[in-house]
Amino acid sequence: MGLPSDVYLEKLEKLSLNLQIHRGGEAIFSSAGSGIAPLIEAIDSIGRAGLRGSIVADKIVGRAAALMAAYMEASEVHAALISAGAKEVLRGHGIGFRFSRETRAILSRDGADLCPFERLVLDVRDPSEAYKRIKAKLSGS
To answer: Is the pTM of this model over 0.70?
Structure first.
């Protein structure tokens, strides 16, 4: 299981990061970027094989981020805030998870509606399909 959840989340806070991915006891990717883009960047720069079995520490994990963790075949996800939909995805893919707080859904930045990426993958079960949709939206397609 690696380090206790609070240690991963404390590292994020201490380093002013929003995402850090660990493998083999070392941080292999770190980002202060927000949203889903840093997870896509990690997948594209390291590759799925390099991320397989990793531990993902992310401040906010919704359904879209959980599907990306499943896509990269992460072993664990540690979240400061997790959505009910993310928990469902992680359980369904056999990925362990720990979290500090839970919410029903991840909202848009202004809090008025569902996060656009959550909406994009609301009906998606397949992590590969989720990756394609998220990648297309990020690239403006």
So the answer is: yes
